[in-house]
Specification:
homododecamer, 5 strands, five-stranded parallel β-sheet, about 140 residues, alpha/beta, 5 helices
């Protein structure tokens, strides 16, 4: 049986490719999801995708993934920096959550250098653009190989 | 006429009993609500229950309680520590809000020791597990006896 | 063709006139919207109104305004002080956003003196009560005259 | 055999009813103790009362309670905010200590929002005036019922 | 009788149009004053203008305006961020003072995000360039219409 | 009838004249008390003297002075910098308390520049050595002349 | 030969009696100067008076007093809290400077609790209203008796 | 003539062996005192022992030791971290004071890493359990050999 | 021609497998290097390995890699948290540097949550144990495919 | 044509040689100006001198130098540490400003280690006494050689 | 078989006796090592000595001691205050490390009061000059007696 | 006999001219050394040059210079901001050390504005590029002329 993973993106990431392209690049979220799908096929695993701007919806998605997925790839967007509720959700579920950031948060504005959500994550990948999601998928998949 | 109170729980509390039981115990939210219901019957008051993961929904619930309930028992979960919007909602309504925490927040990680929502609350009960909800109900009920 | 602007209010502002009137005055949100409508008519521009308690809904509204409006007047309520996600949404869209506060946030409690959302705003108007929305409308309209 | 609990109040609480009544109310310490005694009778438990202005005396009282009482209700007064020695005493004894505050410390001056003594307490009740002592007694008594 | 208002600019604003035009624009102070004069004529109010680099002179000007003007439009320049003496002067006089900033101070260097003078101001307008002075004039004039 | 004042000194002040004379001078506490007595006689008021090293004893002394004296001159010694319990005692009593420091605390080590007890005091005199007690007595006596 | 002292007041103190009387009282600066003059006559010393809103003028006055007066009584107003230049002037001159505050700065807003000018002062008197100037004069005069 | 030293322990150290043995070990205070006595005999010096929970009593003990002992071994317990009064007492007396901690305070909770009392001590020994008292005695004794 | 990458480990990483295995796992550095070598062979790229405890040696290695390698995988060990010199070296060279951490630094002690070296890195991978080096290699290799 | 430079000194520097000579040396300002004049003659450039205690006057001087001088040597005295207005003036003018300090500000009191004015300066010379002004002149002159 | 211990000194300690003798005394490092050797002979244990100015060399020495010595006496010099790499080395090895400081670091400049290396040490001895090394040796030796 | 000075550069300065030329310029370290040599010849003094990336080597160089040179010109690179060990080395030697920075550190990133090494330096020259080394040499040479 193949493992299924959830790739969930947080606030404003639906605007990828359009939003501040000098920071976040010109790749759209759909293109990233296509890239991840292709790699998933190579790895023989399944992937589902979701994107929410609301903190509550993201928490709901994590809770739901606990029953339906073998792991989560999460880009919490700006919630990274203050959402203890999202951090609690990551800690509350049993499946591993890998946190991904498109840009290298350590080299940006001061408030972006801190991740409160990463405290409960299994690992973090930051600064590799869309490739980061692929690396995260490999990290999750390697747990089941 | 009997008074009715709203017991509303915040993010991740729907996972009670399953989430980090070494911190939050093995009692489920349903069991807590049953416990509160029993005590409400003894006290001759009514109780309604709700749980939301979203900040906006919790604010909506508080606004609505202002017309429909005589008081609110609120466990804001992780929003306790940063949701000034929730704190404003508590201040904005006229009925008293009692804040409850299952664990003793003063003895946990640094960020959990601060409650921004409690600023506007009528009182706080923390560290008594599910019994805290019962104590909060007694405190509210005593205002009408 | 006339320009249309979106006036969007954040958490607890639906309670205006009722909530802490000694701080926020006795004017209701409907009365403010009426005042803005009248001025819009004088200026020959259109206005739409919205109010949300949820952070995600406010972000959605800003995203949507990017296609449908020539500018946004935003009172982020308490999200002003911690919602980096809302700040990112303001930065992510192309139309100008003017931040309005009813009270003078610089003269209130310590945490209210900081605006994280204003970082990406076109400008800020604070302390003039409902008149602030009208001034913000004039500022936006002047961009198209 | 009935359980006995110690209710011990810290600095300046002997002046209750007289000291800043707009903050602490007009109830005297004797009246609070009478209220607690009545509830103790209903619950079938015993209570002893003490009040000290000195940090050392409060520590002595906690040490002594470890042998003579089944639990302690402690209002540390201003020591709440800086007495690590009292916090150590709470941690050093085996019987549970419930911390009580008449006012809601989270809504007062900045330095009063922090409790260093609560770190080692079993739980905290704050903001309910004299009722808080009764709630604390119930919480302690429920451990033996 | 027409109301008269004082428009007073602080340190370095005499260099407007020449000083860091990428931040402050190429409009000169004389051009701003002309713009405000035109709007004053439309509104049927009087305006006087002044500019000082010294903290003491600005305080003197505010004291003097208390007897001679119905309100003050003040751009405190860099004194915004540390002059408690100027803040005291604003609080000491009876006529309303509206604080204006050409740039959006919330989006600039860290020390520029804090306004100590705004604490005592009637309101703040920031980020609209020279238009900000006009909006401030309207806000003041509306008090007398 | 003549007014009586209490002059109470805190920890380590019994060692005056011996302890770090380069900071505190070579005058002994007995000599200071003699100086104050002489001035009291001139002013036609009475004075009592006390010195305690314990925080609890100082609080007791303040409580007792509330019934027996018309005012208190207090040198809280090192408790100045952290004893919120002593600060509460000053606030709790009705008679005025004047805080005296032998040295100019603003010019010493960082932690000595802050006085938490002075928050509730009627006034503060610092830096004049033993003369400070005399000035404090005059300030108190002037309230009754 | 009689000693002469300079009494110099800083920014906004010319408005005494009119400015925020609930904080600073209704006594005018002229009345305070009259009070000090009377006491000077009793003590057989001379006094000169000055008031400046500018930091530079206050520094000039202190420099000049070094040659012309035997000591200075200085109320630095809001400069107390940030003027290191004034602090340097106090340290630079040889005659003693006594710092006076009408209100008890330790019990006011956070930024007012710190005095950077007091570091170099001979002593500080705060919280006694106009009487504070008289006490300061006595302290200075006692150096020459 | 043999030198005599005072070994004085602060708050909660009377509970040693019983209090949090995983941190402080199972050795009782009596056993530590016995160990020190034996070593004192070997070294040919005398030792006296005391333990107080009160800050005032500890200060009294230090004052008294100044006349009666050649040095002091002090474990200030939790007062280590905030008692400036105790620090002043150590500075006020002439005989050397060696501060001892059973546990390595640098490796514990954040607030325990700071010693305000050690500022005035002759030296500090931490982390060696009961052996620390013996090392401190040797250090003191070596001054007289 | 195949690309060659440098894998360089910082202080104490030579002890991997032996040092605090509950934090860092039981895999040795040699085993990690073997793992990376195998993956390099699959990817058709070359890898060199180095480990230094000294800050200067690590800087030398980065400088040298600028001429000899197409990219660097760097685990700076504890230098991550304070070595601005190493951060400058990363910024000074032209080839990309990927920072790797075995553990999830965001979930560890406070000082470990900050990376000063990551500011200049191309990206960061943390929390995946030895797999992290492999992911970093893929990220570097993908730049040349 | 020879270049002319302005050497301008800030508050209290008129007292040089007299003011705290153990910190600032016994050289007077006139002697420094003489030293600079001699070196200017050697270098074939002109120098003008000014000294002001007021912040506004210093800003005026910098503005004026923009038209009349080829560069400025500025010792801002204590304004170094808090005058953002002076910093803005340095940034606002086109001619280079070299900041000079007689003492090594990095080795003095904490508040003196920060220079807010230096942010906009061309360079800084500190710790060489009067020689510093000469070095600054050489640095400026070298721009025109 | 006798135990061997390593005594290793950090940066600048090779200059002992010459470097700031008013702080560090006039004893040279060779004299300290002689003192320790004599005591080692008395105790029947062996000692080796080393001194390095480099952080990497000190880490190497600790690693090497893990195989060759039964314990380490380490004076990390200024690395005490910021070398997390050295702290990690102490934690990484199995033999106990006792940290020694010649001076009482708690009574010196602010940055010297914090020891990051002591977190992982077995214990700390500070303030006893060269005697501190002897006490540390006794503490280590007592583990094997 | 001519004086000899040591010019020693710290980490990454060997890459000058290549490393971030927009910040550090395109002059190489060899060119700077040539410039200094020429000026040394004019001044009739000798110069030696060194550059190290390691903290320990820089400390060694300073120690060695104490015997072999009449003064040191030191650019500590990034060690400026955190190397207390280097600061101690500067304080430990008798010959004067002048700290040089190519860029104006006060106008760069926050962490670069603080120099811990400058505390012990004789003086600091910053912001003049390679000319700074020449000015430093003149300052040192002037001590022997």
């Amino acid at each position: 049986m193949t493992e299924r993973f959830l790739v969930v993106n947080g606030p404003n990431l639906n605007l990828l490719g359009k939003r501040e392209p000098e920071v976040y690049g010109s790749t759209t979220l759909a293109e990233i999801e296509e890239l991840v799908s292709q790699r998933a096929t190579q790895l023989g695993v399944g992937v589902d995708f979701a994107q929410y701007n609301g903190e509550g919806e993201l928490i709901d998605a994590l809770h739901s993934a606990d029953s339906n997925h073998a792991g989560v790839i999460l880009n919490p967007g700006a919630y990274t920096h203050y959402s203890y509720a999202l951090a609690d959700a990551i800690a509350a579920i049993s499946v591993p959550v890998v946190e991904v950031h498109l840009s290298n948060i350590h080299g940006r504005e001061h408030f972006r250098r801190r991740s409160v959500t990463a405290r409960s994550a299994a690992g973090v990948v930051a600064g590799f653009g869309s490739l980061g999601y692929v690396l995260a998928l490999e990290a999750l998949a390697s747990r089941f190989s």
